[in-house]
Write a structure and sequence with these properties.
It is a single chain. By secondary structure, the chain is an all-beta fold. Helix content is 3%, strand content 44%.
């Protein structure tokens, strides 16, 4: 028997309880490979889908993991440091450990989708997760 982990992306349930209070607005997230799914030791691999309109993953950082995103559908703005970078399907962005980043869907009609990954951690807890503007009551998503 093989130790290879195999799963169909559509068979993985979205992570429950990720909401605006944690910076996840109008989006669904799947952790496809991590410590719990596949037994990873140093990598997390996932998919995020952003509803049309004002969906966003607000400014945040991971002190213990690098992150890449690969846009597979739609378009939007990658938040990177203090920069806003337009991206579309086929584009890739990379964020170093501890670098502030996020994403915003800019289409009112098309869902944006990205495949993303963390290197250097096998879970959200290991990667660390800190919002830039936690619970301030202000809208910093744009």
């Amino acid at each position: 028997m093989s130790d290879t982990y195999h799963v169909a992306i559509d068979d993985v349930n979205p992570v429950p309880n990720l909401g605006p209070d944690q910076g996840w607005v109008g989006m669904t997230v799947q952790f496809l490979i991590d410590k719990m799914n596949g037994g990873s030791e140093h990598v997390v691999f996932g998919r995020a889908r952003f509803a049309p309109g004002r969906s966003t993953h607000q400014w945040h950082r991971h002190p213990n993991a690098e992150e890449f995103v690969y846009m597979t559908r739609g378009e939007g703005i990658v938040l990177d440091g203090d920069n806003e970078i337009p991206v579309k399907a086929g584009d890739i962005a990379f964020h170093r450990k501890g670098e502030w980043h996020g994403f915003r869907n800019t289409s009112d009609t098309i869902e944006a989708e990205m495949i993303w990954g963390w290197a250097g951690a096998s879970s959200k807890a290991e990667a660390g997760y800190e919002l830039r503007y936690p619970q301030s009551g202000e809208d910093h998503s744009h």
